[in-house]
Amino acid sequence: MEQKKKVILTGDRPTGRLHIGHYVGSLRRRVELQNSGLYDKIFIFEADAQALTDNFDNPEKVRQNVIEVALDYLSAGLDPARSTLFIQSLIPELCELSFYYMNLVTVSRVQRNPTVKTEIQMRGFSGESIPVGFFTYPISQAADITAFRATTVPVGEDQEPMLEQCREIVRRFNNTYGDVLVEPDILLPDNKACLRLPGTDGQAKMSKSLGNCIYLSDSADEVVRKVKTMYTDPLHLQVSDPGHLEGNTVFTYLDAFATDEQVERLTAGAYPTLDEMKAHYTRGGLGDMKCKKLLTAILNETLEPLRQRRREYEQDIAGVCQILQEGSMRARETAAETMDMVRRAMRIDYFQTPEFVEEMKKKYS
Q1: Rounded CA separation 298/274 (Å)
Q2: Within this chain, do residues 237 and 88 fall inside the same structural domain, yes or no?
Q3: How do residues 8-57 score in pLDDT, each as one tens digit?
């Protein structure tokens, strides 16, 4: 095998605009990793084929959001000159690799995957109603990762079981056919508040399907409106009451987004650090609306550069499409190289070399 390079692979399902949970959970980190110069290749894709597993009767939803997600990627700072942006369904090698991996995984193993269980429950599937494509998406995800020989997968903690299953597939393949595939490592957000950002209603995680999102493309006024209705501490009825931080969505968001410099500047020096603001809230005397006002200012300060870049890209949608087309062509070249190695290892590279023909000639001579 060639010397292992440092390669990142990550992506999103294009079922809607990306929200700030995506941003702090993975997208912001992707931009930092892209700009770090520490990685040889970075692949970031739109998992449209995977999105169709539970939107098979509404392909238009996926089609209409491919450009939305691309705009979110570009506005967040992903650079097509440094990161390969591509569309999953344009890489047919991924389907072939998934098919072979299905022989390496049992039904019971997929059923035990905690992420699959959670996703099935969230979508209301039960028993015989689960589409096979959706049920087996850990296998598809393993194909996505290994086709690009990714060494690093930056995702949220909810994806840890998926990555562990990918590693199991890699180990079983390599043990069976030879040392071909790369076993990837997970890269979690370094800020614990970013691991699972709750929705604005305080329930579960932020989710497009639950309607509790703040989107990267939301206007400043929309952010104001959504933060005003955000879940805080139900026991904090009066300003003088002691407040509770645990389960308080406003402070969870502040932990994910705020820097001490921002807190001091935007509160005119009233709180030199976020910890001091938290201390005031917990002992009483600090109202929820002041906390929400600070959060609104920080979110809009963070999102405004993204809005500006998005407006620029919206003026050249043909150029955005070209970025995705060219990225998909480059991505397919890498996936095709991996598939050549996989077929050779599995002894199904029949006519890629003269070996098979010569072997058969000798057998039947």
Answers
A1: 12
A2: no
A3: 999 999 999 999 988 988 899 999 999 999 999 999 999 999 999 989 99
Rounded CA-CA distance 323/312 in Å is 15
pLDDT in tens, 253-275: 999 999 999 999 999 999 999 99
Model pTM?
A: 0.91
Question: Tokens in use for 160?
Answer: 């840890």
Measured over the CA atoms of residue 78, residue 81, residue 82 and residue 87, the dihedral's sign is positive
DSSP calls for 234-296? TT--STTSPP--TT-HHHHHHHHH--HHHHHHHTTTS-SSHHHHHHHHHHS---HHHHHHHHH
Specify whether 190 is located in the same domain as 228.
no
Average pLDDT over the chain reads 92
pLDDT at 195: 67
CATH code, domain with 86? 3.40.50.620
pLDDT digits (tens, 9 = 90+) for 72-110: 999 999 999 999 999 999 999 999 999 999 999 998 898
Tokens linked to 128:
């015989």
Cα separation of 364 and 201, whole Å? 71
Average pLDDT of the residues in 183-197: 79
HSE toward the beta carbon, residue 229, CA cutoff 13 A:
12
Would you give the DSSP letter of residue 2?
P
Q: Are 54 and 102 in contact (CB under 8 A)?
A: no
What CATH number is attached to the domain comprising 267?
Answer: 1.10.240.10
Q: Same domain, yes or no, for 240 and 144?
A: no
What's the Rg (C-alpha) of the chain? 23
Q: Based on the fold, state whether residues 294 and 320 are members of the same structural domain.
A: no
Q: Are residues 51 and 181 in the same domain?
A: yes
Predicted local confidence at residue 207, as pLDDT: 76
Are the C-beta atoms of 19 and 56 separated by less than 8 Å? no
What domain range is 346 assigned to?
7-196+316-364
- Distance (Å, whole) CA 86 – CA 326: 8
